[in-house]
Amino acid sequence: IQLCSLSVLYKSEPRAVLLKAAYDMSSFSFFQRPSVREFMAFTSQPIVERSAKGSRASVKQQEYLCHVYVRNGSLAGVVIVDSEYPSRVAFTLLEKVLEEFSEQVDRIDWPLGSPATIQYTALDGYLSRYQNPRDADPMSKVQAELDETKIILHNTMESLLERGEKLDDLVSKSEVLGTQSEAFYKTARKQHSCCAVM
């Protein structure tokens, strides 16, 4: 799972203006980084330009997803993530960043702004914090814990079923159990076989 880029843009006509961006280039070779970074900045602009105000969208670009959120006030955010990154967490991040950006940066500076002139420094922190969506987002953490619990429960049921099969062998080999007890066990086993875990 990787969060590669987080950008804030202003949706103006005819072109979107890049206001601030942060990138994580750790998965790319040293020589690829400048080109990849440039391509990510380039990709964010037409996505914002083609998105309606008040909309959210996800655009697939090779093995990456570009999630865009354009607020009604023309402030927009784009995250570029790999396909495994949860889209709900990406949109939560965009909402949080755009809300904070709109509170900290004067709206007058948006149309004429540039990454060098805009005084907003939180993007790198967000990019780092949201690299692991499970740690950054409480809902993802809960979902992951539920998934782990399901796996543990499934494994436990499988081991119980294996033990049940071994119990069958023990019952049939037993010399201590009377015929009536053995018949009772087999009847109970048949009645509960309808409830087997898949």
Automatic annotation (TrEMBL):
<keyword id="KW-0488">Methylation</keyword>
<keyword id="KW-0931">ER-Golgi transport</keyword>
<dbReference type="GO" id="GO:0015031">
    <property type="term" value="P:protein transport"/>
</dbReference>
<dbReference type="GO" id="GO:0030659">
    <property type="term" value="C:cytoplasmic vesicle membrane"/>
</dbReference>
<keyword id="KW-0968">Cytoplasmic vesicle</keyword>
<comment type="subunit">
    <text>Identified in 2 different SNARE complexes; the first one composed of GOSR1, GOSR2 and STX5 and the second one composed of BET1L, GOSR1 and STX5.</text>
</comment>
<comment type="similarity">
    <text>Belongs to the synaptobrevin family.</text>
</comment>
<dbReference type="GO" id="GO:0005484">
    <property type="term" value="F:SNAP receptor activity"/>
</dbReference>
<keyword id="KW-0813">Transport</keyword>
<keyword id="KW-0564">Palmitate</keyword>
<keyword id="KW-0653">Protein transport</keyword>
<dbReference type="InterPro" id="IPR045848">
    <property type="entry name" value="R-SNARE_YKT6"/>
</dbReference>
<dbReference type="GO" id="GO:0000139">
    <property type="term" value="C:Golgi membrane"/>
</dbReference>
<comment type="function">
    <text>Vesicular soluble NSF attachment protein receptor (v-SNARE) mediating vesicle docking and fusion to a specific acceptor cellular compartment. Functions in endoplasmic reticulum to Golgi transport; as part of a SNARE complex composed of GOSR1, GOSR2 and STX5. Functions in early/recycling endosome to TGN transport; as part of a SNARE complex composed of BET1L, GOSR1 and STX5. Has a S-palmitoyl transferase activity.</text>
</comment>
<keyword id="KW-0333">Golgi apparatus</keyword>
<keyword id="KW-0963">Cytoplasm</keyword>
<dbReference type="Pfam" id="PF00957">
    <property type="entry name" value="Synaptobrevin"/>
</dbReference>
<dbReference type="GO" id="GO:0005829">
    <property type="term" value="C:cytosol"/>
</dbReference>
<protein>
    <recommendedName>
        <fullName>Synaptobrevin homolog YKT6</fullName>
    </recommendedName>
</protein>
<keyword id="KW-0636">Prenylation</keyword>
<keyword id="KW-0449">Lipoprotein</keyword>
<dbReference type="InterPro" id="IPR011012">
    <property type="entry name" value="Longin-like_dom_sf"/>
</dbReference>
<dbReference type="GO" id="GO:0016740">
    <property type="term" value="F:transferase activity"/>
</dbReference>
<dbReference type="InterPro" id="IPR010908">
    <property type="entry name" value="Longin_dom"/>
</dbReference>
<keyword id="KW-0472">Membrane</keyword>
<dbReference type="InterPro" id="IPR042855">
    <property type="entry name" value="V_SNARE_CC"/>
</dbReference>
<keyword id="KW-0175">Coiled coil</keyword>
<dbReference type="GO" id="GO:0006888">
    <property type="term" value="P:endoplasmic reticulum to Golgi vesicle-mediated transport"/>
</dbReference>
<feature type="domain" description="Longin">
    <location>
        <begin position="8"/>
        <end position="127"/>
    </location>
</feature>
<feature type="domain" description="V-SNARE coiled-coil homology">
    <location>
        <begin position="138"/>
        <end position="198"/>
    </location>
</feature>
<dbReference type="Pfam" id="PF13774">
    <property type="entry name" value="Longin"/>
</dbReference>
<keyword id="KW-0808">Transferase</keyword>
